[in-house]
Design brief:
- The protein is mainly alpha-helical.
- It has one domain: Winged helix-like DNA-binding domain superfamily/Winged helix DNA-binding domain (Arc Repressor Mutant, subunit A, Orthogonal Bundle), CATH 1.10.10.10.
- The protein is 58% helix and 5% strand.
- It is built from 9 helices and 3 strands; from the N terminus they run αααβααββαααα.
- A 3-stranded antiparallel beta sheet has the order 1-3-2.
- Strand 2 and strand 3 form a beta hairpin.
Length: 201
């Protein structure tokens, strides 16, 4: 195993990249170029020119649209959005569940009894009215998810995004807490070596 000084010339940069991946590792996948992490209130042009997946209250409308025909668990909604994008984008539970809580507080959805600890959410009359008044916006936001999947299929880059998502998940799991410094350097070595191999393709 290699030994490195804490002042290795690329050490700080790698550590920053790992930290950035860990911050994004709370249930979100890497987005396609041109797309950032989706969420309530996120607008255009944020994050180094990356476009947010959902703007303003669009996520609320999308969730209402997805549970219009049948009650769903929060996890089901996350998986549905991820499936619609072909696995390219997955909203964070840290975004979806607070949004469901907000919809519940607005009386636009209600939690129903279900097996286990998961809440089963169903749309209410108030939710149907909200959806009817904004159906065009809701369907347009949902359509963007389908378009993202179609672009991914055209580029046939699905395996790459799956691998990126796996890497982020492993980094978050392995480096959570206070990992040994030597582990950090070893992880950085592996990532750098992978980058060098990709450059030589």
């Amino acid at each position: 195993m290699k030994h490195h000084s804490s002042h290795h010339p690329w050490g700080d940069r790698i550590m920053q990249n790992i930290a950035r991946a860990m911050r994004g590792g709370r249930g979100e996948s890497f987005a396609r170029p041109g797309f950032g992490r989706g969420g309530e209130g996120e607008g255009r042009g944020g994050g180094r020119g990356r476009r947010r997946m959902f703007e303003g209250g669009e996520l609320r409308l999308v969730l209402l649209l997805l549970i219009e025909n049948e009650p769903r668990h929060g996890y089901d909604l996350i998986r549905e959005i991820e499936t619609r994008t072909g696995g390219v984008y997955s909203p964070s539970p840290g975004i979806v569940y607070p949004t469901l809580t907000l919809l519940e507080e607005l009386a636009q959805i209600e939690a129903r009894a279900s097996e286990g600890a998961k809440k089963l959410y169903a749309i209410t009359e108030a939710g149907l009215a909200q959806l009817a008044a904004n159906r065009g916006d809701a369907e347009a936001a949902l359509s963007r998810l389908d378009q993202l999947r179609q672009r991914s299929e055209i580029m046939d880059a699905g395996p790459v995004f799956r691998a990126m998502s796996n890497l982020k998940a492993v980094l978050h799991q392995r480096l959570s807490g206070a990992p040994d410094k030597q582990v950090l350097f070893s992880v950085a070595d592996i990532i750098d070596e992978a980058a060098r191999k990709i450059e030589r393709l």
